[in-house]
Amino acid sequence: MFINNDVTKAAEMEERHVIKMTDPKHPVILSTEDLHVFYGKKEALFEGDLEFASNQITALIGPSGSGKSTFLRSLNRMNDRIATVTGRIMYRGVDINQPAVDV
Protein backbone atom coordinates (compact mmCIF):
# COMPACT_ATOMS: atom_id res chain seq x y z
CA MET A 1 0.00 0.00 0.00
CA PHE A 2 1.35 3.47 -0.84
CA ILE A 3 0.97 6.05 1.88
CA ASN A 4 2.34 9.54 2.31
CA ASN A 5 1.99 10.17 6.04
CA ASP A 6 1.96 13.93 5.49
CA VAL A 7 -1.20 13.64 3.41
CA THR A 8 -3.15 10.71 4.77
CA LYS A 9 -3.12 8.17 7.57
CA ALA A 10 -2.52 4.49 6.91
CA ALA A 11 -5.64 2.44 6.29
CA GLU A 12 -5.69 -1.29 5.78
CA MET A 13 -7.26 -2.45 2.54
CA GLU A 14 -10.40 -4.44 3.05
CA GLU A 15 -10.24 -7.82 1.34
CA ARG A 16 -13.15 -6.88 -0.96
CA HIS A 17 -10.97 -4.11 -2.46
CA VAL A 18 -8.07 -6.42 -3.33
CA ILE A 19 -8.13 -8.01 -6.78
CA LYS A 20 -5.95 -11.06 -7.40
CA MET A 21 -4.47 -11.42 -10.88
CA THR A 22 -5.41 -15.01 -11.72
CA ASP A 23 -6.93 -14.59 -15.19
CA PRO A 24 -4.79 -16.70 -17.58
CA LYS A 25 -5.90 -14.51 -20.52
CA HIS A 26 -4.19 -11.52 -18.91
CA PRO A 27 -1.05 -12.66 -17.09
CA VAL A 28 0.91 -10.27 -14.90
CA ILE A 29 3.49 -8.45 -17.02
CA LEU A 30 4.70 -5.85 -14.51
CA SER A 31 4.77 -6.06 -10.74
CA THR A 32 6.34 -4.34 -7.77
CA GLU A 33 7.33 -6.17 -4.62
CA ASP A 34 8.11 -4.41 -1.33
CA LEU A 35 8.78 -1.14 -3.19
CA HIS A 36 9.98 1.76 -1.02
CA VAL A 37 11.08 5.19 -2.24
CA PHE A 38 13.17 7.57 -0.13
CA TYR A 39 14.06 11.21 -0.71
CA GLY A 40 17.04 11.43 1.61
CA LYS A 41 15.83 10.04 4.95
CA LYS A 42 12.17 10.78 4.11
CA GLU A 43 10.26 7.70 2.99
CA ALA A 44 7.73 8.70 0.33
CA LEU A 45 6.32 5.26 -0.64
CA PHE A 46 5.86 2.33 1.72
CA GLU A 47 5.45 -1.39 0.96
CA GLY A 48 4.41 -1.09 -2.66
CA ASP A 49 3.09 -4.42 -3.93
CA LEU A 50 1.14 -4.03 -7.18
CA GLU A 51 0.52 -6.20 -10.23
CA PHE A 52 -0.34 -5.03 -13.73
CA ALA A 53 -1.97 -7.42 -16.20
CA SER A 54 -0.95 -7.65 -19.83
CA ASN A 55 -3.21 -5.80 -22.30
CA GLN A 56 -5.27 -4.19 -19.56
CA ILE A 57 -5.76 -0.55 -18.58
CA THR A 58 -4.80 0.35 -15.02
CA ALA A 59 -5.54 3.65 -13.29
CA LEU A 60 -3.73 5.02 -10.25
CA ILE A 61 -6.12 7.22 -8.32
CA GLY A 62 -5.37 9.23 -5.20
CA PRO A 63 -5.15 12.72 -3.74
CA SER A 64 -2.38 15.17 -4.56
CA GLY A 65 0.81 14.15 -2.81
CA SER A 66 -0.17 10.50 -2.36
CA GLY A 67 2.76 9.18 -4.42
CA LYS A 68 1.23 8.39 -7.82
CA SER A 69 3.89 10.25 -9.83
CA THR A 70 6.70 9.04 -7.57
CA PHE A 71 5.53 5.47 -8.16
CA LEU A 72 5.38 5.92 -11.94
CA ARG A 73 8.82 7.59 -12.02
CA SER A 74 10.15 4.60 -10.08
CA LEU A 75 8.78 2.16 -12.66
CA ASN A 76 10.71 3.76 -15.52
CA ARG A 77 13.67 4.57 -13.24
CA MET A 78 13.44 8.33 -13.65
CA ASN A 79 14.13 8.51 -9.89
CA ASP A 80 17.55 6.85 -10.12
CA ARG A 81 19.47 10.09 -9.55
CA ILE A 82 16.88 11.76 -7.31
CA ALA A 83 15.62 9.14 -4.88
CA THR A 84 16.60 5.79 -3.40
CA VAL A 85 14.29 3.03 -4.60
CA THR A 86 14.36 -0.36 -2.88
CA GLY A 87 12.38 -3.51 -3.60
CA ARG A 88 11.74 -5.31 -6.85
CA ILE A 89 10.23 -3.99 -10.07
CA MET A 90 9.61 -7.07 -12.20
CA TYR A 91 8.99 -6.66 -15.94
CA ARG A 92 8.52 -9.90 -17.86
CA GLY A 93 10.42 -11.76 -15.15
CA VAL A 94 13.39 -9.36 -15.00
CA ASP A 95 14.03 -7.14 -11.97
CA ILE A 96 14.53 -3.80 -13.75
CA ASN A 97 15.37 -2.07 -10.47
CA GLN A 98 18.86 -3.59 -10.55
CA PRO A 99 21.65 -1.09 -11.43
CA ALA A 100 23.07 -3.49 -14.04
CA VAL A 101 19.80 -3.43 -16.03
CA ASP A 102 19.79 -0.70 -18.69
CA VAL A 103 16.29 0.63 -19.18
Automatic annotation (TrEMBL):
Molecular-function GO terms, alphabetical: ATP binding; ATP hydrolysis activity
Pfam families registered for this protein in UniProt: ABC_tran
Sequence ranges assigned to domain ABC transporter in this UniProt record: 49-98
InterPro entries named in the record: ABC_transporter-like_ATP-bd, P-loop_NTPase
Gene Ontology terms: biological process: phosphate ion transport
Keyword Transport assigned: yes
Alphabetical keyword list: Cell membrane, Membrane, Phosphate transport, Translocase, Transport
Keyword Membrane: yes
PANTHER family in UniProt: ABC TRANSPORTER I FAMILY MEMBER 17, PHOSPHATE IMPORT ATP-BINDING PROTEIN PSTB 2
Protein name: ABC transporter domain-containing protein
Annotated source species: Levilactobacillus brevis ATCC 14869 = DSM 20054
